[in-house]
Amino acid sequence: MTTAFDLLTLPLLVASGLVLFSLVAGLFSVRLGFSFLLVFLLAGMLLGEDGPGGVVFEDYRLVFWVGNVALAVILLDGGLRTRYATFRTGLRPALLLATLGVVLSAAITAVGARWLLDLDWTRALLVGAIVGSTDAAAVFSLLQTSGVRLNGRVASTLELESGMNDPMAVFMTLTLIGLATASPSSSTQGWFEPLLALVRQFGWGLVLGVGLGALLADGLRQLARFTRPTGGVRALLLLSAGLAVFALTNWIGGSGFLAVYLFGLVVGNRASGSVGPSLQAMDGYAWMAQAGMFLLLGLLVTPTELLRTWLPALGVAAVLMVVARPVAVWLCLRPFHFPARENAFIAWVGLRGAVPIVLGVFPMMAGVEGAETFLNVAYVVVLTSLLLQGTTLPWAARRAGVTLPEREDTRRARRVFGDFEVHGETPMAALCAFYGWPAVDDEQQHVADWVAQRLGTAPTEGDQVVWGPAVLSVRQVRQGRIERVGIRIDDDALG
């Protein structure tokens, strides 16, 4: 006889056992260089109808709901941990990548999709829009577990781009779905309404995220005068407030993703004393959101269906990673004078994760003809990205020279920053005269200003300039200005 407890215990046993297995496997997979998220995705596929679990699951509405809530939690946690200094360093390049970069990636990928998948232009562009944005869950997770410390300019650009590019991807996907499902008589309508929707998404996301974030930050500071809740209670307060901001913004037509990220950013910086004790609990919520989301996304996919389009889908992934993303990064970052090695790394680490799969569900729910193809392509692109780009992130970072030594690694720190350091206001001409370096044009110029001028971009810790036999390294930056400069003498140049 089946009881109510039987209906509870068996699904709970399977779900908790699967999460436990995935976490343990994920801990070992990280040592091998594989992403945690990839393990959760594969575990869900094993539970699905083509795996040993044999579970038939086709609830796209549930996936849509869980995916959006989980992404909101992940973005909230990422915003709470982002410092204003990081925001200032990477805001302009990240904003360009999150808007124009997504459009360029989608357009170039669409060219490949049209040829490889034999689609019309509207559906080819829809494929590009679905896979065109990087994913916050993948980027935040990989940067935390990769074991490398990236320089501030690269890390902030990647983090901010992944946190801000969802509105453009959602806008393009919904607009192209509308064109794909429109009748011939209505397809000639102008782009005014879609563009207005894009402005509304960014505008409401910005206003509500920043405004409500400042309001809650002030409330937390006032609350600290009367009571001091535990870190767990504070985390629940932040989580519920963040989800409320996400839902409210979406309800009035704004971008909930942008709003919840900016909300976390403002609260985390304006009320850091109140937020700090809750970050450990928030990290747990974010990991649970990622685990549940990727398990459910893995459960939704049918591997035998993927096999029907896996070869052209791999071609789409190759176009995206090898052509579209590098071209978009190069064009968007060119005005900011990023070094070529940083451009190359940012182009390679354009990680795709849950967002393309969640966006791939949109055509299924809208009844677009051939919608299964879009979802299958999204899965192949995500699997390829996590396998190739995710596993090679530490190697690529070291190869590109964008890593910084850990603070306790004094030996490597000496190799990067040198054995000596000077204050940023030291006259550069005096250093040249003392060490016998080539003379500089402006004898009154401080070394900090000289290094910044030679760099041609916003300085960040680890930046280097070669002058004669010396390598001058940016050792400390405060509020965008170089404060300390390290000096290393190149023995080969002397000899």
From TrEMBL:
<dbReference type="InterPro" id="IPR038770">
    <property type="entry name" value="Na+/solute_symporter_sf"/>
</dbReference>
<feature type="transmembrane region" description="Helical">
    <location>
        <begin position="232"/>
        <end position="249"/>
    </location>
</feature>
<feature type="transmembrane region" description="Helical">
    <location>
        <begin position="345"/>
        <end position="365"/>
    </location>
</feature>
<feature type="domain" description="Transporter-associated">
    <location>
        <begin position="413"/>
        <end position="491"/>
    </location>
</feature>
<dbReference type="Pfam" id="PF03471">
    <property type="entry name" value="CorC_HlyC"/>
</dbReference>
<dbReference type="GO" id="GO:0015297">
    <property type="term" value="F:antiporter activity"/>
</dbReference>
<dbReference type="GO" id="GO:0005886">
    <property type="term" value="C:plasma membrane"/>
</dbReference>
<feature type="transmembrane region" description="Helical">
    <location>
        <begin position="377"/>
        <end position="397"/>
    </location>
</feature>
<keyword id="KW-0406">Ion transport</keyword>
<dbReference type="InterPro" id="IPR016169">
    <property type="entry name" value="FAD-bd_PCMH_sub2"/>
</dbReference>
<dbReference type="GO" id="GO:1902600">
    <property type="term" value="P:proton transmembrane transport"/>
</dbReference>
<keyword id="KW-0812">Transmembrane</keyword>
<feature type="transmembrane region" description="Helical">
    <location>
        <begin position="202"/>
        <end position="220"/>
    </location>
</feature>
<feature type="transmembrane region" description="Helical">
    <location>
        <begin position="94"/>
        <end position="117"/>
    </location>
</feature>
<feature type="transmembrane region" description="Helical">
    <location>
        <begin position="284"/>
        <end position="304"/>
    </location>
</feature>
<dbReference type="InterPro" id="IPR036318">
    <property type="entry name" value="FAD-bd_PCMH-like_sf"/>
</dbReference>
<keyword id="KW-0472">Membrane</keyword>
<feature type="transmembrane region" description="Helical">
    <location>
        <begin position="12"/>
        <end position="42"/>
    </location>
</feature>
<dbReference type="Pfam" id="PF00999">
    <property type="entry name" value="Na_H_Exchanger"/>
</dbReference>
<protein>
    <submittedName>
        <fullName>K(+)/H(+) antiporter NhaP2</fullName>
    </submittedName>
</protein>
<keyword id="KW-0050">Antiport</keyword>
<dbReference type="GO" id="GO:0050660">
    <property type="term" value="F:flavin adenine dinucleotide binding"/>
</dbReference>
<dbReference type="InterPro" id="IPR006153">
    <property type="entry name" value="Cation/H_exchanger_TM"/>
</dbReference>
<feature type="transmembrane region" description="Helical">
    <location>
        <begin position="123"/>
        <end position="143"/>
    </location>
</feature>
<feature type="transmembrane region" description="Helical">
    <location>
        <begin position="62"/>
        <end position="82"/>
    </location>
</feature>
<keyword id="KW-1133">Transmembrane helix</keyword>
<feature type="transmembrane region" description="Helical">
    <location>
        <begin position="164"/>
        <end position="182"/>
    </location>
</feature>
<feature type="transmembrane region" description="Helical">
    <location>
        <begin position="310"/>
        <end position="333"/>
    </location>
</feature>
<dbReference type="InterPro" id="IPR005170">
    <property type="entry name" value="Transptr-assoc_dom"/>
</dbReference>
<keyword id="KW-1003">Cell membrane</keyword>
<keyword id="KW-0813">Transport</keyword>
